From TrEMBL:
This is Glycosyltransferase 2-like domain-containing protein. Its main location: membrane. One of its GO terms (molecular function) is glycosyltransferase activity. InterPro entries: Glyco_trans_2-like (IPR001173), Glycosyltr_2/OpgH_subfam (IPR050321), Nucleotide-diphossugar_trans (IPR029044). It comes from Candidatus Ryanbacteria bacterium RIFCSPHIGHO2_01_45_13. GO terms for cellular component: membrane. Keywords: Glycosyltransferase, Membrane, Transferase, Transmembrane, Transmembrane helix. Residues 232-425 form the Glycosyltransferase 2-like domain. The keyword Membrane applies. It comes from the Bacteria. The chain crosses the membrane at residues 71-92, 98-123, 396-426, 438-461, 473-496. The keyword Iron-sulfur does not apply. It is found in: Membrane.
């Protein structure tokens, strides 16, 4: 009798395990975003790929935006969202649009509270720093080889500035591995570099004529030639602090657990016009308050595009950059975090040019927001796996607020301002029905208090940099938000029409003003 029971139990457990396995396979087939491993990850990183210089597994790239995982996830998300709206409509007996307006107002309040909390902690967070005496005591013989990657494209106007900025770096010339990348048809920039007196320790690397024509593709090509233990990316118009590389060396040596260091960014032409002043207040908030707050809590950090110092072996381990992502910095910051690598912030400044014209600014911001959308798509292909890799729901929701949330709030801003203008002009009764008293109060707090808080935070950043003259331009911040909203909407449209297109930001306007 006992043997029969044991036999029956074993058979039952065997059949149950088969049923569970079949059920799991069926669920994953219906909802492929629940997969833990994608088929493209079964092969190792391909650093021999010279077709498009994509070294990553296919699933971690935006070479193809819409995967079956993306479609299935969005189907589930929209079904749950509209199901929740329908449930709220039935329970509270209010129109569906009122429920949606309530959700939007709540989202704004959450985002406002989140940024206030981050800045509260970011204000007092000490950046990694070293005294002048510590830097002077460095023995040059102890310094490692350091690679500087400078991707250039149609930058003849700033060729002289590039050479001067890199030559001013306080680091032994024989320990600098400086690689300037150029497209083969960009003879004008190459000629300008030679005319400016390109030093012998600078190397020019002509890129293969393959698509995509992006900055991260150029970085991947150059990475194969990089020899330094550490590496940093500098853009065409950047001017780093002279001691930045030595500070980075000390930072890497004293913090062996940190894979890369973000520096602070500043504009050397902040006073060029009103646009650059508003741009500069935004930078002051982002790099002096917001990013330090994220660092303090060890949250995922969307890195900036240049002046990030990396351990070379870490870049190799994660597969370098995604050549199809037009904001490769944001993507690689999240990818580092997913794979368990820490990021630090170093108290060193890199100066760059703030875009001076509305057209250039819009092109640049469109590219940034398009990259944020691309990064969101890539990292949310397997959301439960992503949640596990970033360390739980807390970090998962922080990512949602800082990357896709930034895109969402910018587009919502445009929609809500259009609704506000229509109501002010036409006093539409339909719009009034969308905001019954409780929702109106919540939306009013989000709009009035939120606008004040975000304006104040930008000015707080400028104040901490002792740029008191920027305070009076704070009243123009809402106009700046409208511009951001338009650029973000443009980015969302480009994801559909031209997902990998790289719109070039023109540099050198500050030089033409100086010469004039």
């Amino acid at each position: 009798m006992v043997d029969k029971i044991i036999q029956y139990s074993k058979r039952y457990l065997f059949e149950w395990s088969i049923f569970v396995a079949q059920l799991k396979a069926t669920v994953i087939a219906v909802f492929p975003f629940l997969r833990s491993i994608h088929i493209s990850e079964e092969v190792s990183l391909d650093f021999q790929n010279s077709d498009d210089y994509l070294f990553l597994a296919f699933v971690h790239s935006v070479k193809k935006h819409i995967h079956i995982e993306t479609v299935s996830l969005m189907t589930v998300v929209f079904t749950l969202f509209f199901g929740a709206v329908y449930g709220a409509v039935q329970f509270f007996h209010v129109p569906g649009l009122v429920v949606i307006s309530s959700i939007v107002a709540f989202f704004y309040l959450v985002l406002m509270a989140f940024k206030l909390w981050i800045v509260y902690h970011g204000v007092s967070y000490p950046l990694i720093d070293f005294s002048k005496k510590e830097i002077e005591h460095i023995n040059d013989d102890d310094l490692p080889l350091y690679t500087i990657l400078i991707p250039l494209y149609r930058e003849a106007e700033v060729a002289d500035q590039v050479i001067k900025a890199m030559s001013a770096i306080d680091y032994p010339k024989d320990k600098l591995d400086i690689i300037i990348t150029l497209e083969k048809y960009d003879a004008e920039t190459l000629s300008a570099l030679k005319k400016s007196g390109l030093p012998s320790h600078f190397k020019t690397l002509i890129l293969p004529d393959v698509c995509p024509k992006t900055k991260p593709k150029a970085l991947n090509v150059a990475f194969l030639e990089a020899m330094g233990e550490f590496l940093v990316i500098y853009d065409a118009e950047t001017v780093p602090d002279a001691d930045q590389l030595k500070k980075a060396y000390l930072a890497f040596r004293s913090h062996p657990d940190i894979a890369c260091f973000q520096t602070r960014l500043e504009h050397y032409n902040a006073n060029h016009n009103i646009l650059t002043k508003l741009f500069n207040t935004e930078y002051s908030f982002h790099y002096d308050l917001f990013l330090p707050g994220l660092q303090k809590h060890n949250f995922p950090v969307p890195l900036s595009g240049h002046s990030i110092h990396f351990r070379r072996h870490v870049i190799e381990k994660i597969g370098a950059w995604d050549p199809y992502n037009v904001t490769e910095d944001c993507d690689i910051g999240i990818r580092l975090y997913r794979q368990g690598f820490k990021t630090g912030m170093m108290n060193s400044v890199t100066y760059e040019e703030a875009t001076c014209t509305l057209k250039s600014w819009t092109i640049q911001r469109t590219r940034w927001m398009k990259g944020f959308i691309q990064t969101s798509i890539v990292h949310l292909r397997h959301p439960l796996r992503f949640k596990q890799e970033v360390g739980g729901w807390r970090n998962f929701f922080v990512f949602l607020l800082t990357v896709p949330g930034t895109v969402a709030v910018n587009i919502l801003n445009l929609v809500l301002w259009v609704i506000l203008v229509i109501w002010l002009v036409m006093h539409s009764s339909f719009i009034q029905t969308l905001y019954p008293q409780p929702v109106l109060y919540m939306s009013g707090v989000a709009f009035i208090v939120g606008s004040f808080i975000f304006t104040y935070l930008n000015l707080l950043g400028a104040y901490r940099r002792k740029k008191f003259y920027l305070v009076k331009y704070g009243m123009l911040t809402p106009i700046y938000w409208v511009m951001i909203a338009i650029a973000t909407t443009r980015a969302a449209l480009q994801i559909i029409k031209n997902p990998h297109g790289w719109e070039k930001t023109k540099h050198g306007s500050h030089l033409s003003k100086q010469s004039g």
